[in-house]
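Hello again, I could really use a second opinion on something today. For a while now I've been wondering how a particular protein folds. Please have a think about how the structure follows from the sequence. Here's the protein in full, and shout if anything looks odd to you:

***
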Amino acid sequence: MIEQALLIDCDGTPMTAILAMPPVPASVGVVIVVGGPQTRVGSHRQFVLLARALAAAGVPCLRFDYRGMGDSSGEQRDFERVADDIGAAVASLRTRVPSIKHVVLWGLCDGATASAFYAAESAGVSGLVMLNPWVRTTAGEAAALVSNYYGKRFMSADFWRKLLSGEMDLLRRLREFVANWRSARARNVSDSEPSNSLPDRLGVSLARFGKPILLITSGNDFTAAEFLRAAESGYLSKGLARCQITRHAIEAANHTFSSAAWRADVENATSGWLNANFPD
């Protein structure tokens, strides 16, 4: 495996990238799309290790910094304005590895959502790996808090110790719970027309995409919990139903899969899914 440092032109602005290249590349290549204010390295070097693991398995993998992030020039932009950046990275991978037949986008958090938005409008993407996709809404966040956080807190010995010892402001906690419960109940999913909410827009994009997706979720993560709840109904549910979904849950994992065991689980799940869906 060889790592090559690249500069990718994106509308006249250079983006810094690293291509992990195996001696004999497979027919599928991966572009890692970062999430949040993140760089091509990833939290706890997650993207570096993933790219190397995939390349060791024969899959060329490109990771890059958006314009305005990390070592790339230009104006910083949010995940809904990075389609040109992703497109330039995909084009660069195809140019550098002309033998590949398929490109898969791999994204965590809002990188997963940005990948889906791009893939819905591009015929050049054959699959998505989406980890804990970002679909944040006020009501969705509240629902995740009510269903995931408060239940665990009420069952916690530490919660009752603080309550009985007077360390906790019970009235304030009750007000927070009631406010979140009301917000969660206010969630309104239309079955007739998609709203402008992030879950509905992601659902519409997935319906347009309609190709293989590996969905990896963490069991100890509010972002994953909010996504899974939103995916139970509405346009997000409909969009997922139009795709060929493979689900892989890592119940103990946190948002960024920060332990070596969780990272290895993600790497193995990704490699296995690529082999099953894009054999040479």
User: Anything to note?
Assistant: The mean pLDDT is 88. The domain at 2-137+190-277 is CATH 3.40.50.1820 (Rossmann fold). The first strand starts at residue 2 and ends at 10. The first helix runs from residue 46 to 56.
